[in-house]
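Shipment paperwork, digital attachment
Item: protein structure file
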Amino acid sequence: MKLATVGAERRAQIVSAWSFDVFDTFLLRACTTPDGVFERTYELSGISRPCPNVSASFVQHRIQAESRARRTAKEKRGASEVRIDEIYSCFPFKLFGLSRTDLNDLVEAEFTAEVELCRVNPDMLKQYLDMKRAGHRVGFISDTYWDSGRLARLLRACRPGLTWDFLYASCDHGSGKSEALFATYVSEQGIDAGASFHVGDNEKADIKGARRHGIHPRYYPQATAQLASKFQRETALFELLCGGAPSRLDHGARTLRRMVAARSAKRSQAFHLGLTVLGPAMAAFDAFVTRRCEEIAGPGRKVALGFLGRDGFLSHRIRQELRDATSAYLEINRRVSLIASADTMQPLVDLLGKVLKIDAPTFHDMVKIMPAKVAAFFAGFPDGIASGAELAEALPGLIDPAEIVALAAGLRARLLAYLRQTIPGFDDCTDLVIADLGYSGSVQKALRRIFDLEGIEIRLHGAYLMSLDDAFDDLAEQDSAAGFISDLVVTPHVKRMLIRNVALLEQACCSADGSVCDYDGGAVLREINPRPPEQVAIAAEIQAGALAFAGSADGVARDYDLDPYAAPDVAASWCAATLGRLLLLPDDDELALLGTLKHDVNLGTHALAPLLDGPFVRNQITARGLSAACTAAAPPMWLAGSFAGLSPSYNYLYVLFGANRLPADVFEERPAGPVQVGLFRADGGAALEGVTVHRTGLGELRLRIPLSRRMAITMIALPLAKFAPEGLLHGVTLQRGDDVRDAAESQEVVAIATDGLIYAGVQRNGGHYRAETEDGCLLIPVSPMTQEIAVYSVAITPAPNSAPDRAAPAVEIPGLTRGHGIAGRDAGES
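Attachment content:
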């Protein structure tokens, strides 16, 4: 921030004094939030030894002690300013095994923590020294419980030899900047307020306080509102996902992000996302990869490093352009590596079993052959499209295993030629480190089989951003694998939630090229890239921001004396929180930017799967409940984002579920009472059937009405007036199956168009309705049944006092008789 643009001579004529706020302006702390000082105090005080793992309690008691001290001061002196010893006089010493004689020790521990964590802000120091050299009066005004003596010691500890013309600490004067401290400063220093400036980060105390006394304020915010919001969400996720690890001491990682952002010119939203979120996470991963290579290196070892394409493209760019020009970008995917590693039919069967849908041309692209039996197999399916599971089951009877072995041998030779051309000194290499986003090491394991088949003794070591750690127990003894975000950083539940939503990260890190399908003379042969140009452009802009962060982070870290990767476990936890915030708790701007992206499945199809689908989630909640929606299989690929599209609260419930913190007895549905619905047949007959109204933890009512084909029902009449006369209709959905259980559990949920519903005796305004008569009903036309069972589900948020009590009696629709069809059995009880 440039505080003055006029020449030094002109400034000398118009400026009387420059005052600077101290904390978070002139001095910055190498912790996530100011109360990181209290967490470090807990460690330095020695309390952590007799009372381990209670830093959160210590911090909160320190905060509460300050609140009590300020309250007491306000009552006794009429002002809330206090000194540090007054704060600790309100601290619960006995709780932590201390006595009041330890008060001074706690004060000293906190001051030591301040000295350790505070850094001079180089940008502010430059402005300060410029003003001083120009002959202006300069100094400090701070709202603080540190008296001027300690504040002076702190400033000179951070900047030896620093001098000033004035220094005001609020606790010395019993008044803060929002009160009379500025007036005291102006009076005692004899300056012209209208020709003076104050620089600070607090909009109320520094900006409004200075302006109220006629001083020109200069605002120096800690972070933009958007970045501050991201930080708040990250902190919440850190505490939720990272198993109670201390959340405030990050070795300056967040401070580094703030200052890199502050020094960067404004560009696009995508660039800013890369600069402030993806770049910091991938820079931390790069430091992890560096440590992995150092751990593997040793006497007699020649270590090579390769980043797996396409998802490793951004990681490779960070390494190649900023650190190590010798690393390789290896375009090897699961499909190519598994086929090349086949010495039996099984690897191909395993690969195809993971494919959702596949046709004959795609099969030919994958394996380069099309035996007559395989062609006949596809011809037997509608439109020639079969499921991968069906093909995998039939494959051993369709292809001669010798053909697969020969096919694999040819691809294996071409792959090895590519490796020899891409990795310098490949044949002299003893260890190859494979860096990738993750997750279960399928390419690493396939390469191991390839190397063994060809007699290559190179050891393989995985370095993964996220690892499914239970998948690595079958690694060869000489090989290894490690995840940066391992199951020691987050729980397996959390890890699977992250990976369920990782398609967004893959798209952001991916190269703009199509996926590899083969090699020719060491060159890569690629498939077409089905992603639209605008999506490729967004990814490129995000990557540009990430590279900008990586390019400037080292220099900024040196300027501020920060070492964000000094503690690998802390760096990994914050990387998990940073990426987890993006993947799991996106904000509205990120949803708007990323919501149109699609995922290149690249396994048996060129189709693109949507990242977001909010209506899909809403329909799943209506038909199957919240827990079932939280475990829905892809697509959509970005399930958390789809929940966020419904509302931030639904989004957070999804995160709680994934973290195993959402108790089913609180948020799942419970029976709230029976209701009789009317069923009308094609022949004009009608009957009543009983179903159960359920109430969810969010206050919604849900009904499921199962029908069988033999019932020949054409219309369902739901007596809204009897159990929810006013409310918000979220939707009506349809599921199908061969029996009630299959239908109720089916993820294929179809929303019934709102315009297809009939409101009889019910006034409707959008989703809101109100029954106008005692027999007001919602009429649901029944679609022609294509399977034996259909389940219609209805979700309603009732208006206050309109929902049924748990023991509500059954209600009836006049003129209908009680029936005995399948609808008498509640689908939720199947």
